[in-house]
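User: Sequence recovery, please. Input:
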């Protein structure tokens, strides 16, 4: 699938997923368009967990899937893993050193994940997360640190994250003139919301996105969940659709 002309790149929990009626309205709007809008799900979940959510919420099958906070990219009809990205994400990646650093920090619980493409924890508030971040820096362990929802700590390979993964995907698959909308609601979406594409923060966003000011390219929706995405899509592309 190359030269995509229209792309919605969206987080799932709290953004695309959260209100079924809103989602129906967004998808019905896309059905009225003459050209299809490709879908990329960009989530903190791992692959099996996304599959479960797609099933439970009857979500449309996406064209692309970026999981594990932007450390794994799947594309193609069988959702094959992108090997180039995998290689990039394996460079200077030492999960065992991260686990060792976190071992004795109180208030951190390691998340039970099916692979070590990222190392994630639950933090009891922000303090343990900050202690870990400091220790990783002090030990010179290359990483990208993401904190969301005042609880989730994701330690990613350097150069990883939703924003970088999205840039990689767009470069590889989208037309230079493509209509793109990025949507999110929490801390792990921040880098992709600020990646330079038209983007929307849905109105139900977590407090950690409250301080982010809107700009020409970053729209603050007045509606929550998928309704906010629809509002932003019309804000950025509505005039074009009415031509
Ligand atoms: C999702 C994932 C979790 C991750 C969090 C924040 O909840 O299941 O592993 O830490 O997103 O990215
Ligand atoms: Mg979310």
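Assistant: Recovered sequence (243 residues):
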């Amino acid at each position: 699938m190359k030269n995509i002309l229209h792309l919605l790149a969206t987080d799932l929990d709290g953004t695309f997923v959260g209100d079924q009626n809103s989602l129906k309205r967004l998808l019905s709007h896309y059905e009225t368009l003459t050209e299809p809008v490709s879908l990329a799900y960009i989530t903190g979940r791992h692959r099996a967990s996304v599959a479960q959510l797609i099933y439970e919420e009857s979500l449309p099958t996406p064209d692309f899937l970026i999981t594990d906070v932007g450390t794994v990219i799947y594309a193609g009809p069988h959702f094959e893993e992108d090997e180039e990205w995998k290689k990039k994400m394996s460079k200077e990646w030492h999960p065992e050193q991260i686990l060792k650093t976190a071992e004795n920090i109180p208030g951190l619980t390691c998340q039970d994940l099916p692979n070590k493409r990222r190392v994630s924890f639950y933090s009891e508030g922000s303090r343990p997360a900050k202690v870990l971040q400091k220790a990783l820096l002090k030990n010179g362990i290359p990483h990208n640190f993401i904190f969301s929802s005042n609880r989730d700590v994701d330690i990613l390979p350097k150069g990883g994250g939703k924003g970088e993964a999205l840039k990689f995907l767009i470069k590889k698959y989208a037309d230079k003139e493509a209509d793109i909308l990025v949507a999110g609601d929490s801390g792990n979406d921040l880098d992709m919301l600020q990646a330079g594409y038209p983007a929307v923060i849905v109105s139900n966003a977590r407090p950690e996105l409250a301080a982010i000011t809107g700009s020409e390219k970053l729209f603050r929706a007045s509606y929550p969940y998928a309704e906010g995405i629809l509002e932003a899509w019309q804000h950025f592309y509505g005039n074009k659709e009415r031509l």
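The radius of gyration is 18 Å.
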